[in-house]
Amino acid sequence: MDAPSATRSELLARRRRANLAVQGRDLLQDKRTALVRAFQARSTSLLQRLEELARDAAQAHRRLDRARAELGTAAVESASFAAAGRIGVRLTDSAVAGVVVVDAEHAEVRRAPGARGYETTLVDPHVDAAADAFEEEVDALLDLAALELTVRRLAEEIARTTRQVNGLEHVVIPRLRGEARRIALALDEREREEIARLKRARTQARRRTQARSRSSR
Q1: Which of 90-94, 156-160, 170-174 has the lowest mean pLDDT?
Q2: What is the domain count for the chain?
Q3: Tens of pLDDT along 50-69?
Q4: For the chain, how far is it from start to end, CA to CA, in angstroms?
Q5: 145: burial class by Cβ within 10 Å (0-12, 13-18, 19+)?
């Protein structure tokens, strides 16, 4: 990179850019603080709900094992095939601390026993109990998926903002301030040299005047 010209305009330009970089760093630090708050709140909620999901999943598998023990694997699988279906999911955008994230809205997962496609009078209540538990698990999983995506997006943005802050704090601002100091020193040195030159010129002029005055006597 070429050295900046040691001019008054360059000095003012470097100082102005340094001030703008400081303002940008402060704004990014404020943004990072807001992102960290949002991340902490959502990550705490995510961990809690993951723990709840783990407990619900364990209960669902216990109910499924009970149904298999009572009816046999073939009967349970037959009921599961009849209950298969689709779940509508709609993605929407929203802003969290200034960062665009994706939210997922889904159709109701849990169904009444009569809406699962099999004849309820021919199916043991253990199958309905297992179906209830797994539908609740799927419902929680869909909600958690959107929350986890948001947490990951916030974490990525925090890392990116931190890199920007560090770049301004440790590279851009010191460089601009250093250039401004070097320009100021060069200008000061140039001013001192100009003052010394003027003093020498005045001294020489005074001596010539005195010499002419003596020679004219």
Answers
A1: 90-94
A2: 1
A3: 998 898 889 888 988 988 88
A4: 63
A5: middle
Measured in degrees and rounded to the nearest 5, phi and psi for residue 98 equal 85, 0
Model confidence pLDDT, tens digit, residues 164-180:
999 999 999 999 999 99
> How far is 139 from 118, CA to CA, in rounded Å?
21
Rounded to two decimals, the pTM is 0.71
Question: Domain range for residue 148?
Answer: 22-159
What is the C-alpha to C-alpha distance for residues 140 and 110, in angstroms, rounded to an integer? 11
* Alpha carbon distance 119, 160 (integer Å): 55
Amino acid present at 168: L
182 assigned to some structural domain: no
- Residue 110's CATH number: 1.10.287.3240
